[in-house]
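Hello,

Our lab assistant flagged a job as stuck in the queue for most of the afternoon. It eventually completed. Since we weren't sure the result was trustworthy after the delay, we are filing this so someone can double-check. Below is the sequence as submitted and the structure that was eventually returned. Let us know if re-running is recommended.
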Amino acid sequence: MVLRRFLRSFDITPLLTKARSLLEPGWGIAVVQAGRMHASLGLDEEHLQHADAARFSAPFVSNGCVLGHVIVAEKDGPRSHRASSNAQQVAEFVAASLEMLLHQDDARRALASDTLQKYRELSLLHRATVGLNASLRLRDVGRALIGECSSGALPTEMGMIFLRDNDSNSPVPIASFGPAEERHLERFLSSTLFQDLMRTGKGEIISDLVADPRWHDEVPGITSILAVPIVAAENRVGLLVLASARDVALEANHLQYVNTLASVAGTAMGNAVHFESIQTLLKALLQALATAIDARDLFTAGHSHRVARLAVALAKAVHEDHFHFPRVSFDDSALTEIYYAGLLHDVGKIGVREQVLTKSTRLPNDQMDLIGMRMALLSEISGAPWNADFEMLKRINSSDGLTREQASLVVEVAKQELNAYGLAMPILSEVETLALLLPRGNLLPEERKEIERHPAESYRILQHIPFPKRMRDLPEIILQHHERLDGSGYPAGLKGDEISLMARILMIVDIYDAVTMERHYKPALPREEALQILHRDAAQGKLDQQLVAVFARHIEAIERESQRMAQEQDFDSLSVTTTK
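-- returned structure --
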């Protein structure tokens, strides 16, 4: 120990001054270490070299080691009549005082070192707290915890975290660092030590695994471990295991640090468990709502789920297409949002009357029977044939389109009247004539308006649901899914950039699923014809041409991805993965 590093002149000089005042005139005092003078008052190196000089000496000690001596000596050589009677006591007093100064310095340095260590721990803990609370997914928190343990603050060179699986409730490894996988650290699960740690819920340092009776060399080559159970929402959800195959010094402060990390991670995991339970409930409710809407009409059963899956698959294709969409990317949150937008896009149909929603013909069958009775009665009176015309009217009633020949027949029949007892009754009423003359579809104008209100009704219903922040645009996406880029859509007649990209994706897959599935009023179209319809609408400026191009180019991969999602039935963590 070099004294100059620990004993400063402003500490020693006052002490030597006070000590010299206690000596007789002609005496001096010095502090010597390893034969060299560290500090002095009234003495120099030459004085100390006089072998015949009267001197007294006292050692001073720190941590059991002699660091130096305090020398009291005559300044001008031996003069017995000037000998100082208290020289030895002064030397011992100064030595004791130096020992006290050194002890205080040791304490000050220990305190500074401890403060610095605490500061470093707090800094690491602060960083870890931010990282561990960055996600509300249980496995993400676990991975963040193992990442903190691999940052270099601990002497272990490998580690693995085990969390209980939601399905089997058995612990499984979810993340690791270092050579943990190469060493097969997952075999730790089969050890009695693992069971004991999970049972007690207390962290342990085991520096000599071979000597531990709970260890039977489940992971060969591992010599020491630091293991801490992870507690979330008062449940032991997993275990953090840090291990080493080297001779490392695992200390109590390491266990304390990891315990603190595990405690923070446990709190974050508790939040994640609560969040995931809410998400599971929300998902179940939303899926049940979509299923209930689809179930009102057997022909549209499953439509919302298929649209949701196709929308996600198309969004993934867009994410990966750097030619048409070089600046567009979707993260997992965006995929989740568009999935639920697809799932709920028709929720507003809950307010549409059953007879309108499930309408399969222009007029109900019982109303067509009444028209047939009128035509038969008129035939009895006039003798004119009626069966052929009535059969044609029935075909018109169940058709999606209308030819000129069919329209002419409807007009002719509408002109006919049944006269009896001075009363005239038209064969076709005004409403019946209007329904049979519809150029396309089977909905009357008022019925079509009722149907077209469903996006606005969906928005009205969903805007009161406190969706998570990552799904805040969901009601707006649904509101726009029947808009068209040329302004011909509904309910607001939006144009171009007024319509979001996600709504454009949703409108394409909604049309595709509608035309490729059988409905009351039309048969299912094959894929090729459905794509032709999309290309035609895109050429007319109704749909996004680039989106239609990407959809058509990757249609097989998109449908495969949709089918995979349907089979796995796992939409809690939608991820951007390759669809090509």
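-- support follow-up --
The delay was a queue issue, not a problem with the job. The result is valid. The domain at 296-351+450-568 is CATH 1.10.3210.10 (Hypothetical protein af1432). The longest helix spans residues 87-132.
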